[in-house]
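User: I'll paste a sequence; please echo it back and then give the predicted structure.

Assistant: Echoing your sequence first, then the prediction.
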Amino acid sequence: MKQLLLAGLLSLTTLAQAQDVGYRTPPRAIADLVDAPLTPRISLSSDGKWMALLAVQAMPTVAELAQPELRLAGMRINPRLNAPSRQSYATGLMLRRLEDGKDMAVLNLPQPTLISDAVWSPDNSKLALTIANNAGAEGRTELWVVDLNNFMARRVAGVSLNAVFGTPFEWLSDNQTLIVRALVAGRGAAPSTTAAPTGPAVQENVGRKTGARTYQDLLRNPTDERLLEFYATSQMVRVTLDGKLQPISQPGLIQSAVPSPNGKYLLVKTRHRPFSYTLPVSGFPLKVEVYDVATGDPVKTLADLPLADEVPTAFDAVPTGQREHGWRADVPATLFWTEAQDGGDPKTEAPIRDKMFTLTAPFMGTPEEFAALPLRYDGVSWGNNSVALVYGSRWADRKEVTWRVTPGALPSLQVLFDRSSQDKYSNPGTAYTRRNAQGKPVLLTDAGNKTIYFLGQGASPEGDRPFVDELDLATKKATRWWRSEAPFYEVPLAILDADKHRLLTRREAIDQNPNYYVRDKSGKLTPITKFANPYAAFGGAFKKQVLRYKRADGVELTANLYLPPNYKATDGPLPTLMEAYPVEFKDKKNAGQVSGSPYAFTRVGYGSPIFWVTQGYAVLQGASIPIVGEGDKQPNDTYVEQLVSSAKAAIDEGKRLGVVDPSRVAVMGHSYGAFMTANLLAHSTLFKAGIARSGAYNRTLTPFGFQGEERTYWQAPEVYNAMSPFNYADKIKTPILLIHGELDNNSGTFPIQSERFYNALKGHGATARYVVLPYESHGYAARENVLHMLWEMNAWLDKYVKSPATAAAN
């Protein structure tokens, strides 16, 4: 009995040690890569004269992540700041003049500086900033304005911002006035979260079909409802730079307040009760109104839309009634919106899916039909009375169409592009817009309105080669101005002068950190930034080779191969780490297209597998895993077969090159890549170990669709069951490391997915380890957690992949 008791105590001690290992750090080479210098973000003025350089905040600590946070209606709120929590702030600001590269320091910024928004005024003479102030017993979110006449920053006094729904201000076209969403004065104390409940939380449905996908951070009880109203309620206020404040309307859950181009009206969208415990705030009832900016009075109620709980779960499904309200960007004050013509259900046969309508100030007339679309509305780019572009799409066959419309004439649709959204090689790019004098984005055209311009990624068989095209609207013929050339990867960001073909580009190479340049028609490059290579201390670059190979069914695949810096062919095959993320396709040809550029600079993010080249591993990064379902077939009908075949093809290609040891390969993935990892271990013997981070493993817990699957569990139970590695936990004999953020906020990847999968694995005697990272969301942020995650992964790989014989002996 004494021996049994001792054994039990030892087992408990071992378990306790496994549960509380403390924070660990990976090998120095990996940790140093995590701490490599960050490159500033930029914001360009619309006239192309100034570039704002925003210093990027370093990784937060776990203590910072542990600050109070509310998780309400699909949002995460910092209650001290009335702003989104877990923001990545800019910690400094400098202005650089593009003409001569001269830098101007911004004076009088608060210290510390925590900038979340930076928005240029319509005339680019000022830069408005949202700055977090954590000082004192109560924090607040402040509005600051930088004047480019003296480069002085000053706080707009008398107003604290409510940024729960995002950027809390908008410039008016006079360049002196902003509309802000402000905290309501005298709102009192926050509702108590510790008071005893007055009754149970109850939900009821009577005969209505109200299926919903799986969401996180939803409201749970009346206390959550009161907290949402307290923290998300704001008051619209008209603020002038000389300090005058004028409230507009009544307080409410104001999601957005957007001024008309002429600055006379506000389009206001407000969420309201009844709330839902199964939908995020984006599904709550929505009131859409127009207000007069000068008087603050309501002018027109456009719609009061009900709770969107009866919308079908199909990807192209939309609510009935008005939706997608906005301003025509190119005229003083004309509203537009869209209305479904098929009841919002893509499975309903209908020659016209959506109609667009417009209504001009003073908004008393009858709305005019602007466009009747055979596909679901997918956006609009306004230009002028001669040209606008309307976009439509259909998920079932991945079809997308771009139409040209002439707003000043009898509306009609002229097809510019008709293609598959998954055909990267035929992508014409994105129509280029530039802010007009009112600060609204409009299509850039030539003087005669005969030409528009496109910036494209330029996918091709040799990799991405970004480009700039001009398109003749009459002939639909595109003429290429410029295309990125080897050995650089160069991306066009802005057209500075269309007549002179002057561009702002971001240029990089395998061993050159991305930097910004002005490029002219002759090909002359003028450097604007000189950001240093963050990996100079590590040899300057991670060199990659783009592999091209085929799987058994003939689908072409690619992967990026990284090898240790001093690797020689005579070193022979290496232990290998493969990383991937499956993608669904409706066409084998599109599935085999090449992505990425062989000349892009490799930046190693926290989730990258590339860290392990420093530890002597070969790395197959971004191995393509296309899941194809052509015609009437759905991709996921043969998910497992295609998954295993793709992985085998990658390993076989590495073996053929002599760099991959097929007996020592691990697979890793994050989110849907974690789901992939578990399935590969359940249905193949290709790998020595697996690492699955923040995944979902039981698809019955996401029964109304997941990832690219829009069928429900009850429509395709065999697919859900076959794709759930939880159902095959007894088949997994390969060591698997599960990692999950404690506070995952991603739809479907609740931490319980990893918890229950781990329990199933250990219940069947699998070799498994389950690591929960404190306070982390779906993406990991805290430095301690990231370093510990990398330590866990490195230890797992070394034990089960690099030295499998040693692991077996243990």
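The chain has eleven helices and 46 strands. Residues 83 and 164 are 4 Å apart (CA to CA).
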